[in-house]
Amino acid sequence: MIQQIDHLGIAVRKLEDTIPYYEKSLGLKCHGVEEVESQKVRTAFFDAGGVHIELLEPTADDSPIAKFLETRGEGIHHIAFRTDDIEGQLKQASESGVRLIHEVPFEGAAEKLVAFLHPKSTHGVLTEFCMAKHHDAAGEGDSMVE
Amino acid sequence: MIQQIDHLGIAVRKLEDTIPYYEKSLGLKCHGVEEVESQKVRTAFFDAGGVHIELLEPTADDSPIAKFLETRGEGIHHIAFRTDDIEGQLKQASESGVRLIHEVPFEGAAEKLVAFLHPKSTHGVLTEFCMAKHHDAAGEGDSMVE
Prior knowledge:
The structure is a homodimer of 146-residue chains. By secondary structure, chain A is an alpha+beta fold. Helix content of chain A is 21%, strand content 38%. In chain A, strands 2-3-4-1-5-8-7-6 form an eight-stranded mixed sheet. The two termini of chain A are 19 Å apart. The model of chain A is unreliable at 136-146 (pLDDT under 50). The interface between A and B is large, with 44 and 44 residues.
């Protein structure tokens, strides 16, 4: 079951050029910057009342974010829903006709399992499911975003 | 101060073609469909753990959503932050160099005051501030989205 929106991924050209907007213009706090090598991105995290905003800067020309920037420019890249049953969520989506990018969840950052649905079958919204690997951990709601 | 992400606006061609994806594939519940004449849209609302998803279908060729669909296709249209001080939030954004689409908040649906920042100065993300008109009302968190 979907518990809530976990985070929004936003594609940007340079973190350092964008962080001041979120901090100074919106008044949100940056909780950290992290490189995710497998995805070829650097990310900066903000918290907006329990939903994270994740800025994504490409670290290579063949990063998915580099391709997105090339065709669409800066903007919202994906929406991630937190679930307590990622396998069941993928099965439900697949059985209702949604095309999955990942049939099997893989490990994202911060010990989360993640999988994406294809925007061609989600009315243009690149959609991620994510689940904490350790359900019994205290403070699950505080886990960092993918 | 920004309290939380209030809702995400998602541009779609037809509500009736899109609602089944959110209901059947994601398992979210549609809380209602409403026409907002001033914005020339029909909207359908979903709740995802306290953040609303607002599908937006244009009702006229000159609707802002019709223009968005023409140039970008279906997808995430805007992000709305809930604040308890919309005037202060606009002032903070403006003073830090952000271009405002609305210098003065106007009344959106569901008795909310709303105003937008221009995506050219927010790194590509059309950004809305919204505030309940009646702060003292009980159950403010349950108020419907713009």
